[in-house]
Amino acid sequence: MEFLASDALRGRGSGTPDELVAATYVASQLRQYGIVPAGDNGTYIQRGVILQQKLATPPQLRFAVPGGGGQPIIWTYGVQMLTVQLSRRKFQGPLRRIDTENSGHAQASFKGAVVVIFGSDDNKIQSAVGAAMEGGCAAVLAPASARRLKHWDERARELPVLAPTIEGGETAALVGEGNMFAIRPEAIEDLSGVPDGTIVEFDATLAPPETSYTWNAVGMLPGRDPALRKSPILLTAHLDHLGIGKAVEGDNIYNGADDDASGTTAVLELARALGSGPRPRRTVIFALFGSEETGGLGSTWFEAHPPVALKTIAANLEFEMIGRPDPKYMRDKLWLTGWDRSNLGPMLAAHGARLVPDRRPEEQFFTRSDNYVLAKKGVVAQTVSSFGLHADYHRPSDDLAHIDFRHMTIAIGSLIGPLDWLANSDFRPAWKPGQQP
Ligand SMILES: [Zn+2]
Fold it and tell me: Which pLDDT does position 413 carry in this prediction?
């Protein structure tokens, strides 16, 4: 952990050579623990190919104002609007307005609509954006915040980029779906006379995709039971972090000690412990992912190129931010996201794991980590964490000085026995009815 979170690794930026060094280091540790390679071509390294698509020209939103031979209203990127998030280069839908000052948005359906939000209260606007997105809108157009207006020109100079995909076209599971635009307040007023149902169109031209790479480290402890070894357990964490960034108090290295050198260390420690005893009955796969911070790209690549068929995996535990205790809990406890969704957490706890239910459901941590990529494919996949929303999250101060090694040691130690039990047990974890995402 000291090496992973050191300044030497420059914050393990997603898809950077520093991430590759981290993956190569993890691989060398796995080899020392008797874990065999399960990456590309007999190595531990699995290289993922990422495609990034930029728009070729400033895109436009077009409102086909009905009747009277009127001219359409056209908004151009950088003039009347900016993109906040773009997952499609093309969409169209009927305009639907939300007036946050008056009617609100109770019980409305937004499926396929282009939702325009009127109002000036940022909180009300945010809640309307959330309702529109959850309601399955095609796009949401909201008044730009004061902060966005302040940085408008510098943003306008850069053309929008579509959410990255892996080669093969799959969008990373942690990348937000949806199209969102920030609109200049004076432009949004031009729509006041435009009726609901007016067709809004967006059709952008893409530049040729840019290719880049990310690196996972993958190893395997082959099981000894002829039947059980075909239903492996998968232990994962992400080895990348934010790299070098904006300096805070003179420090520009985002060390990511808690996020997620701590989880990577947990997986390595479990590899060391499980690799040192007699071989377990089940196969255990250890996978440390790159490019989680840019939307779960490494795990998406892994899920598209798994070393074993995904449906055979009996369980996946992801380790995310276990380097500090969560003050909301008793010391040295870890919580498991989606506790009520499966029987995995309770069974591990019954065998001594210091695991408790996730008491921050409002944070939706279950859907915010690499486990979700696999859970969406049916694997019983959950995340172990003790992240207590500390102020060093995604800041250069998430460093070794802030790690509680006593907590980490006890927490990881409490999992060795239960995971050893699971690796030798016929028990196969299952989702509870209706709880698989
Ligand atoms: Zn993380």
Answer: 95
